[in-house]
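Technical annex B. To support the medicinal chemistry partners, we prepared a structural model of the target in complex with pyridoxal-5'-phosphate, based solely on the information shown next.
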Amino acid sequence: MNRNEAFSSFVDMDSANDLIDMTPAQFRQLGYKAVDLIADNLERLQHRQEPARRAVPTALRAQILAHPLPATGSDPATLLEFVAQHILPYPLGNINPRFFAWINSPAAPISILGELLAAGMNTSAAGGDQASTYLEHAVLNWLKEIMGFPRESGGLLVSGGSMATLVGLTVMRYCKTQTSNIRAHGMQQEPTPMVVYKSAEGHSCIDKAVEMLGIGHNYLRKIPVDAECRMDVAHLAQQISADRHAGLNPVCVVASAGTVNTGAIDPFEAIADICQRENLWLHVDGAYGAIGVLAEQTAHLYKGMDRADSLGLDPHKWMYVPVECGCALVKDQEAMRNAFSLVPAYLRDDRQLPWFAEYGPQQTRGFRALKLWLAMQQLGVAGYRQLISRDVALAQLLRAKIAARPNFELMAAGPLSVTCFRYAPAGAPDLKALNRSLLEVVQNQGQTYLTSTEIQGEFVLRATVVNFRTSESDLDFLLDAIEQAGQEVCESQRS
Ligand SMILES: Cc1ncc(COP(=O)(O)O)c(C=O)c1O
C-alpha cells in the first residue's frame, strides 16, 4: 500500500494543507491589510474620531452568538473583512484617549508589532536555549532593578496581576508551612490555620488567591484604612497579635502599591518593619501602581517596597504593553523554584538557565517578553519616567479642574492617577441617584467613558489616567460631558 492509498479515502495528502496555509504573497497581502486596519484606527484615535466605547449592536451580538459551528471553511480575506466591519469597532475602549475607566493603558505601537511578531514565531517560552529565554531574563532583570529587587531574585512573566499574586502567595505558603511538605499534604495537615492580611482597599485578586490556595477567606483579614485609604498599621499590628493569641498562624501581609479605588500606596516601611518583627511574608500588589516608583511626584512614597519578599506588577496596566503581560518577582529564587518545580533537585542541571516552567504554574507559555522588551528599549527608564509622571500630572490637573467647577466635588484622590469625584449641584436631593443616572447617560453616549466606585459608603465617579494620548482637552471633554448629563438628569427629575 503506498502513502496515498493509505489515506486516500479521507485525506488528500497533497492539498490538505492548502486549507490552512497561505503563500507568502497571500500572507503579505492580508497582513498589510491587518496592519492598515490598526494604523487607520490609530489615526482616528489621534484625531478623536472614535467614540470611547460603542455598545455592540443587538443584531450583531445575536449573529455572533448564534453562528453555528462552521462545517466547512471560509475565505480568509472575507473573514478579515468581517473582523474589520464587525469586531474591531467594539473594543473595551481603553486605547481611546477619552476612556478613563478601568486601568489598562493603550499599547505602545512598537509593542503591538511585538505581539504580532511573537505570534509569527509562535515559540513556547517554556525555557531552553532560544531567544525568548534570554529576552525574558533581560526584561525581568530590568524590572527587578526598577523595583529595587536584587538581580538574583526569581521572576516570571505571567498573565497579569491576579496570577502574579497567586504565584507570590504560593511561594509564601510553601515557605510558611508548619508541616515539612505543603506540596505533598496541601493544607490538610497544617496544624494551625494560616492568616493573611490585606487592607480593606486591597484588590479582590488577593481574596481569590487566598481561596485557591486553600487558606480560605475567613482567614483573610481586611485591615481598616486611614483617611488616605492606606492600610492602618496600628490596626494591622493589633490584629496580628489578636490572631496569635487566638492560636492562629499569621503568615503574610499583602500591601498595595496603588489600590484600584483611589491609587493609595500603603506605608511599606512601617508594614515591612512589622513583617520583619513578626516573621511574616510581605507581598506587594503593584499591578497598577508599582511602576509609579518612577514618577517624579510619587517616587518617595515607595520607600520600603524593596523590602517585600514578593511583588506583582502589570506591564499591561501602566507600561503601555498589550494585554496580557504581568510579572511576579520573588526575592528567594530557590524557594520560588522549590514551590513549583517538578524536577527533583538532583536532576537540575544549571549549566543552562532553568526552564521558566519550574517557576510557575504554566508549561507552554506565550512569548510575552518581546512586546515588553521592545517598549522598554524604545522608551528607556527616562521615557517611562516622563510618561508616568505625565499621567500623574494630568490626574492632578483633572483634580484642579474639578475643584474649579462649582458643581463638582472631589471625593478622594491618591497620589497616582485615580480621581474619585461627583457631580454635586447645590440643592440636589439625592447625589447617589443623580450620579448613578448621569453615569448611565455618559456611558450610553460613549463619547467618553468612566466608571464608579464606593468610597466610605458614598457612590462616586472614578476616572483614571493611564493613557499617553490623553490630553488636557480630553479632561475638559470628560467634565463637560458629566456636567451636561447631570443637568439633563436634574431637569428630567424636575419635569
Ligand atoms: C490593584 C490591582 N491589583 C490586581 C489587579 C488584578 O490584575 P489583573 O487584572 O492583571 O489580573 C488589578 C486589576 O485591576 C488591580 O488594579
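Notes passed to the chemistry partners:
The chain has a mean pLDDT of 96.
The pocket of pyridoxal-5'-phosphate is lined by residues 103, 160-162, 203, 205, 258-260, 285, 287-288, 314, 326 (CB under 6 Å).
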